[in-house]
Amino acid sequence: MYTTIEEMIENQLKARGIKDPRVLDAMRKVDRSLFIPDDVKPHTYDDGPLPIGGGQTISQPYIVAYMAKTLKITSENNILEIGTGCGYNAAVLAQLAKQVYSIEIIEWLVETAKKNLKKAGVENVSIKQGDGYKGWPEKAPFDAIMLTAAPPFIPFPLKQQLKVGGRLLAPVGMSNQRLILIERTGEKEFRQEDLILVSFVPMKGEAEK
């Protein structure tokens, strides 16, 4: 068990190859304890996901950092996140990007995330309740898109809302999930790269059909 954020950063992130100083600083700035229920606060800096209620979880710190690092986010970027959850991942992305737009299908999580982000003093995250499958076309195109729930395949509307040169990162699959990185290289061209094995909650809504 790790008891401080610096232990988490040294042993879980740096030790596993997360070297990007902006990502490490973002992880340092966001207090994970503000995003989890009281009964699991003693495990705030544990090396794994934690339950937040209703069968939902807050992601493992390493995965949050790895995904942020992989997207190569700059301070001028507008990001779309599918699956707000408790708001922790959005809060980390908000330290790196200009604006984060986040969609959550579960109504009580929308309210929870808004309260958590307010506690954390994060102001550049916009959340709406809805099915993330169709994205947020009114705010598109995006420099980067991140999914924090796993669809069986990448929803086509999300790929279309990516800027040329933009990157989309998603866990894909049912029982065996793999993190997939897609880069839009042209109006109709995309390049795909398979990264690491992961385990995320399934994406709900249209993706289940």
Automatic annotation (TrEMBL):
One of its GO terms (biological process) is methylation. CDD domains: AdoMet_MTases. Belongs to the methyltransferase superfamily. L-isoaspartyl/D-aspartyl protein methyltransferase family. Catalyzes the methyl esterification of L-isoaspartyl residues in peptides and proteins that result from spontaneous decomposition of normal L-aspartyl and L-asparaginyl residues. It plays a role in the repair and/or degradation of damaged proteins. InterPro entries: PCMT (IPR000682), SAM-dependent_MTases_sf (IPR029063). It is found in: Cytoplasm. One of its GO terms (molecular function) is protein-L-isoaspartate (D-aspartate) O-methyltransferase activity. This is Protein-L-isoaspartate O-methyltransferase. SUPFAM superfamilies: S-adenosyl-L-methionine-dependent methyltransferases. One of its GO terms (cellular component) is cytoplasm. It catalyses: [protein]-L-isoaspartate + S-adenosyl-L-methionine = [protein]-L-isoaspartate alpha-methyl ester + S-adenosyl-L-homocysteine. Its EC number is 2.1.1.77. It comes from Christiangramia crocea. The keyword Cytoplasm applies. The active site is at 59. It holds the Pfam family PCMT. The keyword Methyltransferase applies. Keywords: Cytoplasm, Methyltransferase, S-adenosyl-L-methionine, Transferase.
